[in-house]
Amino acid sequence: MLNPLRGVILSDNLKAFVIKADRYDPDFNEVCVQLADCYRLDLQAARPRKPKDKASVENAVRTAYTRLYAPLRDRTFYSLEQINTGLREQLTLHQRLAFQARAGTRLSCFKEHELPLLSPLPTAPFLLKKTVRAKVHISHALTPLVHSV
Fold first, then answer.
1. Residue in 86, 45, 48 with CA at minimum distance from that of residue 69
2. Are 58 and 12 within 8 A, CB to CB?
3. Contact 118, 36 (CB under 8 A)
4. Over 78-123, what HEC string results?
5. CB atoms < 10 A from the CB of 121, how many?
6. Average of pLDDT values for 119-140?
7. pLDDT confidence of 2, banded at 50, 70, 90?
8. C-alpha dist (Å) from residue 56 to 87, 90, 104, 130, 147
9. Closest CA to 60 of 108, 9, 120, 24
10. In Å, what is the CA distance from 66 to each residue of 12, 74, 83, 107?
């Protein structure tokens, strides 16, 4: 199975992903920053209050839902493996579906334009680092404020 990295993660300013939205330098969640450092990814956020920037992200989500999840809504699954198999089947159909306005499919476009630009996944798994914030009192004693895992 091919698991390449694209190099950029684009968010539509989801609160769990972007802590503080800013046009030029948004602040990202610490876990997302650690993930990006591990996999050498660039984190990007759509500009706040700019619907034009969010359209590509929202259209991708809508397309994924209508092409992958909606066809499975009337089926009954009894395990996570069955759900994943159903999603893989729908993904294969979606990738091989011909474009309406141009020649080719999503799979042929991916292989021709994007695959050569991708890098392989790192061999080491992503390990979440524990961060601790502390307050130094006048007596020079440390008091932990927040533990995030």
1. 86
2. yes
3. no
4. CCHHHHHHHHHHHHHHHHHCECCCCCCEHHHHHHHHHHHHCEECCC
5. 13
6. 77
7. very low
8. 22, 21, 20, 34, 35
9. 9
10. 19, 13, 16, 18
Radius of gyration of the chain (CA): 20
Residue 94 CA to residue 60 CA, distance in Å, equals: 12
User: Tokens 């999840």 identify what position?
Assistant: 69
C-alpha 87/C-alpha 93 separation (Å) is: 10
pLDDT in tens, 74-103: 999 999 999 999 999 999 999 999 988 889
Contacts of 131 (CB under 8 A, 6+ apart): 30, 148
Indicate the SS3 state at residue 136.
strand
**Rounded distance between C-alpha atoms, residue 125 and residue 6, angstroms:** 17
d(CA 96, CA 47) in angstroms, rounded, equals 33
- pTM, 2 dp: 0.57
Strand-pairing partners, residue 18, are: 28
The token duo for 148 is: 């995030």
Q: 90 with 64: CB under 8 angstroms?
A: no
Q: Count how many residues are written for the chain.
A: 149
